[in-house]
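Minutes, project check-in

Agenda point 3 was the complex the collaborators sent over. CS summarized: two entities, 301 residues total, and the question is how they sit relative to each other. Sequences were read into the notes so everyone works from the same version.
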Amino acid sequence: MSRPYAWRPLGLLPILKTSALTVDNVAWQRHRRLDLYHRCMDPVIAELNELCAEDKYFRFADKKVRQGRCFWHLLSMDGLEIAATTMCNTDNCPVCECPKDELDRTDFLYPLRDSATVKARVEAAQAALLEPDGTIKRNCKKRVWRP
Amino acid sequence: MGQVGDKERELKHKLRPRNAFLQAEGLNLPAACPREELHQFLIGLYGEYVIPSSMHKFIQVLRGKELYLGQGDTKRPLVTDQMLRAVWARLRDRLGSLDSPSSMVEVTTAYATHFTDMYVDKHTGKHMTGDRVRILLLTLPFLLRDLIAPEVWP
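CS then shared the predicted structure for the full assembly.
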């Protein structure tokens, strides 16, 4: 693509500044920001899903029109953005199953995570532990005893 | 930590709020988000480990046991603090003199001073972005040489 068309903004995400918040609980603010980010991405992802669903005709840089299929397979982001997107903490590997305390092991390859499995497991856990409105179920609030 | 926290830790995924990206068709989210080179390699490995250890090596050599004058209480380093400071000032000036026609990267005086503040004066409040560290990665191997000998201009 020629340069002016190399980038196509799909959405501008709002930043929830601390000064704009009336609740000063840091955990609440973190959750609110994360929620805002994901809810803003909902319509963008819906449109991308629609775009990627069928073949379309594209004019390429060599002026030829070809039939093609859009797909996306890489998200270019920094560490904090990756953490917000994958909802995996920055001190964990979002790509493979390597546990946090074995991140220094280079002699072993851990199985890669995939979207379908993560989604299924997350949805199962959400169904078990959360109410439909996203609040924690009453009987799931108790602390877990650890030896 | 409650059951939700435990489950989140086990899944390496927060349960709240709902992750919009898991609704993306055809996108393998974990594979699409590798921990990029920016923080782990550029800032983490090179910026926080390689550069300080390179500078430490320079100091180790310049303050080697054989480079001390006098004995006992009168023992003093041959390379004084002032001379050592001049070494880093020279590095700063070399860095600041880089321009795109000759080096393909342009480095401002402010950036060079920022580098000195961070790595020589150990200013804890100063940081560098990945792209700025990348400039150091490209240029420092050529700048960190002959810092003691008089500068030779062609």
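Noted in discussion: Chain A touches chain B through 52 residues (CB under 8 Å).
Follow-up: revisit at the next meeting once the mutant set is ready.
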